[in-house]
Amino acid sequence: MISWKKIIYGLTLFIVAGIAGLSGAIIGGVAMYQAGINNQFSTLSASVEEPIVATVEAALEQPLEDVSEEKTAEPTVETLPALTSDEFFTNIETPITDAVEKVGPAVVTVGGTIPGQNTVFGRTGDTPVSGSGVIISEQGYILTNQHVVEDTQDIYVIFADGKEEPAELIGGDVFSDIAVLKVDGEMPAIASLGNSDALKPGETAIAIGSPLGDFKNTVTVGVISAMGRSIDITQNYQMEGLIQTDAAINQGNSGGPLVNLAGEVIGINTLIVRGDSYGSAVAEGLGFSIPANTVRAISQQLIDKGYVAYPYLGIRWQWITPNIAYRYGLPVESGAYISNIDSSSPAALAGLQAGDIITRIGDQPLDDDHPFINVLYNFSTGETTTLELIRGQETLNFQITFGEHPNP
Questions:
Q1: Are the beta carbons of 244 and 226 closer than 8 angstroms?
Q2: 213 contacts 109 by C-beta, under 8 angstroms
Q3: pTM for the structure as a whole
Q4: Span 6-26, pLDDT tens digits
């Protein structure tokens, strides 16, 4: 008879053996799975790792200097030559120096003599004159002031390099104070005329000329002080539309150029004011120049005709002031009193008579601010307008067509 203890013991052994076998199978399966994973990873690593390693190893095997040459370019530094102090200051340029270098070679000294005006110890001799000028064309035309060459003989110019040449007077205009000379041969430089209508107060102005005739091509610098100035030249005439500048202008600078920073001639220097002749005040820095646009128009007429054509009435006249009007009992305090009329003149043809007083030309009345000549020269030759005049106690109007009269 089998004992229950033996049966239970046997069953226990069987269960333990089964559990052990199952555990082994599980462990073995896990081991086999892990081995499969590792095998796949190893294969993948080999396929990926092999070219990367090869590339890195190839790069590491390359010499260091070759890598540097290909990957990093050596920076290039340009070395400037050292300048001496003389070279440094020689190379300094400003708009002013540029303008002077551009126009300076075209500036000349104008000289000549006025015969029989210099009296020394009872003997009469020639008076030397000196001024300035500027070359404006390759044909040798030179601008200067009329008062520089008026009544002057043996006119000559001295170029900036010291060369002296005789000059011919092409023509001059006493009212604008512009004259044109001509010199034969090759010109050292040509200056160009700028637009004076575009000027503004405060702009830099450069005057170039020969003050006192000895200090050739002197440069002075200032500003445009004002535009449109009028200066009384005589009781009957004003120079109008002038440029005022504080750039130093002295005797001998007359006829020289006033220059802007672009190296353009914006005016021709013509006169200075030192102060009130009736007082003790002394002024400095009051120089005046003829605007370039006026210079351009006048000089072209002088070159084309040798003179400037102004409107012509054909009368001799006297300007009326309040004192004259009071003394002679005249009916007006300002105007042009006609003392004589040329026969066959525009005034004679229009019916004007000696003793008439012209009080208005066109729409402009004649008064202290509008002298007769200034108003007359606002018109052109051949132009027709109305003259208002006083004859006795009557006010009359006449239609008149101006003729042409060079430099009346």
A1: yes
A2: yes
A3: 0.69
A4: 545 555 544 544 544 544 444
